[in-house]
Amino acid sequence: MKKYELMYILKADLDEAARKDVMDKLAAILTINGAEVRSTDESLGLRELAYPIKDETKGYYVVLKISAEVKATNEFSRLVKFNPNVLRHLITVDPEE
Questions:
Q1: What is the DSSP letter of 15?
Q2: pTM of the full structure
Q3: Residue pair 58/49 in contact by the 8 Å Cβ criterion
Q4: Which residues, in sequence order, are bridge partners of residue 86?
Q5: Is the pLDDT of residue 82 over 90?
Q6: What CA–CA distance (Å, rounded) separates 53 from 61?
Q7: What is the DSSP code (8-state) at residue 17?
Q8: pLDDT of 38-50, one tens digit each?
């Protein structure tokens, strides 16, 4: 399995419980498809966006380090587009590999 870094931005108006629920569902998409979530980093947290995305000016940043096959990352990218709480996502090869 290849190592990836996955970042996504959630809507800023989600409360703590709703945000955790969305994060758990997104992680479940990966694990169901055979990926392993190695770490979750929320240290960036709530930030101003450089430009509005879907009429939002703030977002909550989450970074995951995962080990996965291409199938899992493709399925994540496909399903995350249907989640109205996710503003953007980006999957890159882990630079620390």
A1: -
A2: 0.91
A3: yes
A4: 10
A5: yes
A6: 13
A7: H
A8: 999 999 999 999 9
State pLDDT tens for residues 6-41: 999 999 999 999 999 999 999 999 999 999 999 999
Closest to 29 in 3D by CA, of 60, 8, 56: 8
Q: Which helix (H) or strand (E) holds 74?
A: helix 70-80
60, 15 Cβ separation under 8 angstroms: no
Distance CA 43, CA 30 (A): 21
CA distances from 9 to 17, 28, 54, 65, 82 (A): 16, 17, 12, 15, 14
CA dihedral 52, 55, 58, 63 (to 10 degrees): -80
Cβ 6 vs Cβ 63: under 8 Å: yes
- Average pLDDT in the chain: 94
Contacts of 62 (CB under 8 A, 6+ apart): 7, 8, 9, 10, 23, 40, 41, 42, 44
